[in-house]
Design goal:
By secondary structure, the chain is α+β, with helices and mostly antiparallel strands. It has two domains: 168 residues, 2-Layer Sandwich (Beta-Lactamase); 238 residues, Phosphatase 2c, domain 1, CATH 3.60.40. The chain is built from twelve helices and 14 strands. Helix 1 runs parallel beside helix 6. It is elongated and about 130 Å long.
């Protein structure tokens, strides 16, 4: 039987050859690390599926530092473990580790997202200890995945090789992977926020369209009256309410124009979506009540009782001015639920008066009484209904527009003999100049100009004949 000849001894490398071999080894390791980091960067900018991206993070981290494995734990916004996003490598040996880790109690896994200082470090250290207990005998190195000062996760690499130690280069590489992962997680949060805002914007747009359809897009024709109105919400949905309600909606043509009409101006406390929804709810209630033909004080009383439960649950109240006008008698009856009193310019006296009546906010008290007042308007008189967004508008210096300034503006515009639309345009123009043309409105602002025409009016009819 032939014997294998003994291996010949290898000649010893010269110092220069040993140095070249070492440099080549370092260069190969450096190129490999660069390729791994470049791969992670490519995945980061190319993948839109966050789960697929996070699956690769522990695999790349383990290969980068030549560890036996790695574990990535991601946290939700409140610091709880994001159990669907726990990933480990190598995949063939990590399923049991992930399963046991996810099964741990919530208290053992939570790291408060905004924790800093010693408290945050203690929680992270306890989490590392739990992971170390599941791994058994292994050398661990862990670092936090942090974005904009918030804990987004924890990256842990481990090795079971005896005597293995983590060099400073290893630590920096793992931290670099953690930082790139943090960017990916933060981008996902921003994307989710953007998608959520887009959904809200679409819903607001639909809500604004529905609300715009509910608010009159043009003023009705009322015998002997020139009308103009504008609602200007601060947001897409507003809490201001302007409406014109016929006492007998079935009438058509001239009979409808000569019938009694209600003019309503209201304001739900607050702005945006909640105020807009409540305004829409109250509109339906009020229009149903107006069909009863009751006087304004009774209508506000009934509305207050109907809306009491809905308003108390929302912790909001409503101011409302309700008036009805008979074109044949020129009688304006009105009641006020703590709304800004409308202003009335009396042409014959050339002065501005307030139309007010006693009454509480809608929704404030279940049993509330409302006063009823009335006045006969004369040709040329101008009534201005408005919301507090007009008088409470502020200038750059913080000064409010106030009712006195609005009275002066109404006096000037009314004396100029303008039609209702011209008066309305001038009032808004003066308001915008005061506030600043380039400034966004801080509150909903609405105005209705109600002007009695100068032409000869029909003579008053006997009582009870106005609804014919």
């Amino acid at each position: 039987m032939s014997q294998t000849p003994p291996a010949l001894p290898q000649p010893a490398l010269s110092p220069g050859a040993s140095l070249r071999q070492l440099l080549e080894s370092l260069n190969r390791e450096q190129r490999r690390n660069q390729e791994l980091l470049a791969s992670l960067g490519f995945v980061l900018r190319s993948f839109t599926n966050i789960s697929r991206l996070l699956e690769l993070v522990p695999l790349l981290a383990a290969r980068l530092v030549e560890a036996d494995g790695a574990l990535l734990l991601c946290f939700r916004e409140d610091g709880r473990l994001w159990r669907e996003q726990v990933h480990a490598a190598p995949l063939e040996h990590s399923a049991d580790l992930v399963r046991r880790l996810v099964a741990l109690p919530e208290a053992d896994l939570q790291v408060v997202a905004h924790d800093g200082g010693e408290a945050g470090l203690d929680r992270a250290a306890r989490l590392d200890q739990r992971v170390g207990g599941l791994l058994g005998r292994a050398e661990l190195f862990s670092t936090s995945v942090v974005a904009r000062g918030r804990q987004r996760g924890r990256l842990i690499v481990f090795s079971r090789r005896e005597g293995f130690c983590w060099s400073e280069v290893h630590r920096r590489h793992v931290q670099l992977v953690a930082d790139l992962t943090a960017v990916a997680l933060e981008n996902e949060v921003l994307q989710q926020d953007m998608r959520r805002h887009e959904r809200v914007d679409r819903q607001l747009s639909v809500g604004a369209e529905i609300q715009a359809q509910l608010v009159p897009d043009h003023c009705p024709v009322i015998e002997g009256v020139d009308l103009a109105a504008r609602c200007r919400p601060a947001f897409e949905l507003g809490g201001d309410y302007v409406d014109f309600i016929p006492a007998r909606p079935r009438l058509q043509g001239r009979r409808r124009e000569r019938g009694r009409w209600a003019v309503v101006v209201g304001d739900v406390m607050g702005k945006g979506v909640p105020a807009g929804l409540l305004m829409t709810l109250l509109r339906g209630m009020l229009r149903a009540g107006a069909l009863s033909g009751h006087a304004p004080d009774r209508i506000l009383h009934d509305l207050n009782q109907l809306a009491q439960e809905d308003l108390s649950q929302s912790h909001r109240f409503v101011t409302l001015f309700y008036a009805d006008f008979d074109p044949l008698t020129r009688l304006l009856r009105y009641s006020n639920a703590a709304h800004n009193p409308p202003l009335l310019w009396r042409r014959r006296l050339n002065r501005v008066e307030r139309l007010d009546a006693a009454g509480l906010l809608i929704g404030l008290q279940n049993e509330a009484d409302y006063g009823l007042e009335s006045i006969v308007l004369e040709p040329g008189d101008v009534a201005l209904f408005y919301t507090d967004g007009v008088t409470e508008a502020s200038s750059l210096s913080g000064e409010r527009y106030e009712e006195e300034r609005l009275q002066r503006s109404l006096l000037v515009a009314s004396r100029a003999g303008l039609e209702a639309q011209g008066i309305l345009e001038q009032l808004f123009a003066r308001l915008d100049r005061f506030v600043g043309a380039d400034r966004a409105p801080q509150d909903d602002a609405s105005m209705v100009v109600f002007k009695v025409r100068d032409e000869v009016m029909l003579p008053p009819l006997r009582p009870g004949a106005s609804g014919s």
